[in-house]
Model the fold of this input.
Amino acid sequence: MSWGVVYKNETRFLLLLLVVLSAMLLPSFSLHPSLPNLRLDEFVLFAGFGLAVARTILAVLRRQARPAPPPGWAWLRRAAGRLFAALLLSYAISNLYAIIWLDAVYTLRDVMELVTLGKYFLIITLVCTVEFTPAQRTLLRLMAGGALGLLVIFAWGQHWNVLDLNVWLAPFFNQAHWEHLIVGNPARVLGVFDNPNVFGMFTVLVLAVLVTRYYFAADGGKLPLPLLAAIGLVIKLEYLTISRTALMGIAVLFALTSLWAWTHFNRSRHTLKKVLLLLVLTLLLFFTSSADFLNRVAEGLDFSNSTSLQGHLARWNTAIGNIWDSPVLGWGTQKATMTTLVDNEYALYTRRYGFVGLAVYLALFFLPFIVAWRLLGRAPGRGSAAAPGPERGRPFSEAQLALAVYISVLPSVLLYNFLAGIFYHLQLMTSFCLLMGVVYALGVRAAARDRLEP
Done:
């Protein structure tokens, strides 16, 4: 069933807009102490999907003719559909194996894993079914840009504790992080997220969008100074989080994207100016940051005495020991009896689903990368309406920029998963799934175009 078959385009766009704004601006909220926290974007997605299922069932009972799925939808079912089916199958097999042979305990918390998978699939398919009009595209950019501006103001308010902001907002956020990191030593900003490291990684996703446009969008031969100013504001946000993992993500993002732009534009002087300007801005903001930030970065680089690194290694050793006791299918979710604090999502996922599950997990991230890479390299005239291959030395189109964002940011995400993890953070992964959805949407349009071409 497709969102596009049930809902009008305006309704789908409104649902998508609510998901974007919720992921950027709203923390989770609690319905009951015994239940997991709920996010507004989750309620919107599952409520919308539930109504869609009900309307489809009603149409079948009334024997009403149902509209045909959009052109190219079969391609999405083969790509994303089979991938999420593999995730579900891996989940089912590992948990059944653990319950039958490992005497595992299966609780309501383990069922929530299915909610996680369902949410990500719904985000991707929702993005794929929205046919953006020029007005909707403009509105989405304005709303996302406005939300980012509010987030910048709010984060600085946390940093300076304006009007005792950190006191009267405390009940709405994760208490451990709020108490120890906002008013701790050193104080760390977390925005509307429940962890400053997660907020730091969110800034990396935003920077991927900004830096890709900075390098590859048409600029008429002039330096895009407004974009550079926006990049500086977001870099400063990451510095306020004092997240060393996100800082490494920025370094990887900037290095790879700068190298890509320099080679794409044939080592032009204009591109070199952009690279040097971005480097100077980053270093200037870095070395004018607070002593707390610089000291924490230095502590993280002292591998022999870093308490953070030692804690990571201790958790990794425990997880690796569990993995080798059941390497193929893992131990199942077992959230009630096995710790979720591993500080390495690859190790956590492998412990739960074995190396078979890890392969599917990696495919979740790499399949959109492969799709984006192939679409970006398509020869003009084949699926060209979706995303023609960029001519060397020339700026990217809007579709090409969207594909380049995912290609640019994936290495930083993979690094982050090695030291923390994005998959199990519903707010952060929502933002990343939106990028995935854009890639798949362009794949759907390319598949539809290929069907029409001789």
Observations:
- Residues 379-386 have pLDDT under 50 and may be disordered.
- The CA atoms of residues 16 and 127 lie 7 Å apart.
- The chain has one domain: 3-452.
- The radius of gyration is 23 Å.
